[in-house]
């Protein structure tokens, strides 16, 4: 394009901006995509596969540890530990005659009696801690179910209260009883 | 006039320097591989299409809305500041094609050797928080089509308020049965059996809640059903085991008490 032609073009546009001033005609946006037709079912499959690649919402690690949700988490964890222990004991007790194990109370007591004082205390503390936490926190839940102590402040206070009480009880029953 | 010819010259010069391959589609332009889409092949095609079809760059928009007098004034000024305008026009020329990114001048061999961005990194680039795959994403299948409303379960008190109350009664019933052995040292066999029964029910409800929360039926129906059945079988087995222990042995509270003082 000669510079003369460019000049003419420029003049023409400058003279009649209302008609030629709109750039939409020349500045067509191009979306450079390659497409390919897909059947309804295969499109669904592609969509399902693609959805798995979507970002997962932020997980627990991005939140500040707070007694409100940490307490709730430990309530479930301790519940699983206690109930899981009960289930495992039940299964083992039923399987014991077949497998030749001795899980009658006398053998269990005799086994524990053979442990060192430190082992006994540690084992007691390890059992007492989830037991007391889950029991006391369960009471807290029942109080909430009655619609009481539902403010943020009360939830935090009772949360720490349960932690303190279960630690104290576990130390007492672990090491002094 | 000067502005326009400078722009045109810059564009032509740039095109000649790069052997006609000035613009191309972004190399990380996202298209899932599942579509059978060949990125390199497609971008080659796009290169040619872009260069053939796109008009030569035009002066920025504001110059066109000037009157003739103003235009000549701008043009006169432009001739004075030609070297700096050349640089500006090059920048403007990049802005003109705002939907197309400029090709990084990599030789094809080097470009091929570089690792291609994965889907995860492309997705992550749009998010401020770090992507942490603690667990893999569960299947994202939708029953029916996207436009169907979520099925609302029939309101049944047995699955709602009665169930809720039952859970609370069981939990509350555990409180005296838990405190009594601490006070009395142990429980009589009947109360001990009641404690065992309540523990079984309470545990079953607790595990059931975990399964419902972590293995959603909508996402992983098979895992949900399998774990529910495993739980039912396990609970019945536990019931048999505790019945056997209660009838043949000393009972739970007595066992714990003796183990504690062993």
UniProtKB/TrEMBL annotation, chain A:
It is a multi-pass membrane protein. Pfam families: Sdh_cyt. GO terms for molecular function: electron transfer activity; metal ion binding. Belongs to the cytochrome b560 family. This is Succinate dehydrogenase subunit C. It is found in: Mitochondrion inner membrane. GO terms for biological process: mitochondrial electron transport, succinate to ubiquinone; tricarboxylic acid cycle. CDD domains: SQR_TypeC_SdhC. InterPro entries: SQR/QFR_C/D, Succ_DH_cyt_bsu_CS, Succ_DH_cytb556, SuccDH_FuR_B_TM-su. The chain crosses the membrane at residues 74-96, 108-133, 154-175. One of its GO terms (cellular component) is mitochondrial inner membrane. Keywords: Heme, Iron, Membrane, Metal-binding, Mitochondrion, Mitochondrion inner membrane, Transit peptide, Transmembrane, Transmembrane helix.
From TrEMBL, chain B:
A ubiquinone binds at residue 214. One of its GO terms (cellular component) is mitochondrial inner membrane. GO terms for biological process: mitochondrial electron transport, succinate to ubiquinone; tricarboxylic acid cycle. This is Succinate dehydrogenase [ubiquinone] cytochrome b small subunit. It is found in: Mitochondrion inner membrane. Heme b binds at residue 202. GO terms for molecular function: heme binding; metal ion binding; ubiquinone binding. Gene3D superfamilies: Fumarate reductase/succinate dehydrogenase, transmembrane subunit. Belongs to the CybS family. Keywords: Iron, Membrane, Metal-binding, Mitochondrion, Mitochondrion inner membrane, Transit peptide, Transmembrane, Transmembrane helix, Transport. It is a multi-pass membrane protein. It comes from the Eukaryota. It holds the Pfam family CybS. Signal peptide: none annotated. Its main location: mitochondrion. PANTHER family: SUCCINATE DEHYDROGENASE, SUCCINATE DEHYDROGENASE [UBIQUINONE] CYTOCHROME B SMALL SUBUNIT, MITOCHONDRIAL.
């Amino acid at each position: 394009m000669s510079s003369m032609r460019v000049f003419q073009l420029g003049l023409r546009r400058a003279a009649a901006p209302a008609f030629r001033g709109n750039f939409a005609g020349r500045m067509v946006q191009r979306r450079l995509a390659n497409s390919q037709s897909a059947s309804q079912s295969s499109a669904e499959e592609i969509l399902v596969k693609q959805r798995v690649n979507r970002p997962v919402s932020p997980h627990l690690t991005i939140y500040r540890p707070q007694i409100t949700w940490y307490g709730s988490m430990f309530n479930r964890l301790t519940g699983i530990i206690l109930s899981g222990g009960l289930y495992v004991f039940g299964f083992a007790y039923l399987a014991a005659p077949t497998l030749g194990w001795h899980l009658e109370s006398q053998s269990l007591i005799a086994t524990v009696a053979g442990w060192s004082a430190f082992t006994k205390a540690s084992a007691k503390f390890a059992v007492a801690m989830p037991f007391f936490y889950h029991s006391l926190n369960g009471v807290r839940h029942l109080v909430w179910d009655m619609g009481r102590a539902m403010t943020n402040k009360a939830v935090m206070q009772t949360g720490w209260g349960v932690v303190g009480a279960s630690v104290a009880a576990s130390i007492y029953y672990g090491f002094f009883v | 006039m000067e502005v326009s010819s400078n722009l045109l010259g810059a564009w032509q010069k740039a095109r000649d320097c790069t052997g006609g391959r000035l613009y191309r589609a972004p190399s990380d332009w996202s298209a899932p591989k599942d579509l059978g889409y060949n990125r390199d092949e497609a971008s080659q095609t796009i290169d040619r299409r872009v260069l053939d079809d796109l008009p030569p760059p035009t002066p920025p928009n504001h110059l066109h809305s000037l009157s003739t007098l103003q235009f000549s004034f701008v043009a006169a000024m432009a001739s004075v500041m030609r070297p700096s305008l050349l640089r500006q026009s090059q920048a403007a020329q990049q802005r003109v094609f705002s939907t197309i990114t400029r090709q990084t001048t990599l030789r094809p061999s080097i470009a091929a050797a570089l690792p291609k961005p994965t889907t995860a990194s492309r997705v992550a680039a749009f998010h401020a928080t770090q992507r942490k795959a603690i667990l893999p994403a569960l299947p994202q299948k939708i029953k029916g089509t996207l436009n169907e409303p979520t099925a609302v379960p029939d309101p049944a008190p047995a699955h709602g308020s009665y169930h809720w109350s039952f859970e609370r009664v069981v939990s509350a019933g555990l409180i005296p049965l838990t405190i009594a052995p601490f006070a009395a040292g142990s429980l009589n066999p009947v109360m001990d059996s009641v404690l065992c029964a309540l523990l079984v029910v309470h545990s079953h409800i607790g595990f059931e809640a975990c399964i419902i929360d972590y293995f959603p039926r909508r996402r992983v129906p098979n895992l949900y059903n399998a774990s529910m059945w495993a739980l039912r079988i396990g609970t019945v087995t536990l019931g048999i085991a505790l019945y056997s222990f209660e009838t043949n042995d000393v009972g739970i509270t007595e066992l714990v008490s003796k183990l504690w003082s062993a």
